[in-house]
Design brief:
The chain is globular. It is built from six helices and six strands, in the order βαβαβαβαβαβα. α5 links the parallel β5 and β6. The protein has a single domain, classed as HAD superfamily/HAD-like (Rossmann fold). With about 170 residues, the protein is α/β, with parallel strands linked by helices. Bound molecules: magnesium ion. The site of magnesium ion has 7 residues, from loops.
Length: about 170
Amino acid sequence: MRKLLTPDLILPTGVTGIDLQALKRRGIQGMILDVDDTLLVLGSSDLDPLVIEWVEQAKQDFQLWIASNNPSTRLIGSVAHALDIPFINNAKKPFRRSLRRVIAEMELTPMQVAIVGDRLLTDILGGNRLGLYTVLVLPPGPTRSIGAKFIRAVERRIYHLTRDKLAVEVPRF
Ligand SMILES: [Mg+2]
């Protein structure tokens, strides 16, 4: 279980800190992006101009998809529309169904796809179950709901248990 919750890469920055060239060298050709606390600060619907710029850059070398557990078609659709990338909302990560659909749409193999998100129990667990390259980004702002705070506390615990292993990026090939 611990292995399934261990990301291949942890970035203390947000998505904009992802080294696109390094991902490319790994053979990654597609990226599945989370929205809440990854592309957006939770509770906000305004995209950071730096995130918009990063997405534009990423599009040059990667197929991008949004897969969000957020049930709001309106919110996730508006983010996807603003960034001009396809999306699935209510994706039910860590279940594999939506992620499999995205990989099929990309016409790539799981090895060629990275998943980027802020949550171990959804984004990273779902990605690892399918053999994707998993990237954990740390959320940019404070988390609001009590339920989310509790889950975060659990995740922090797991993170501390595994952090020794995470000091260096886990080689893939
Ligand atoms: Mg999230």
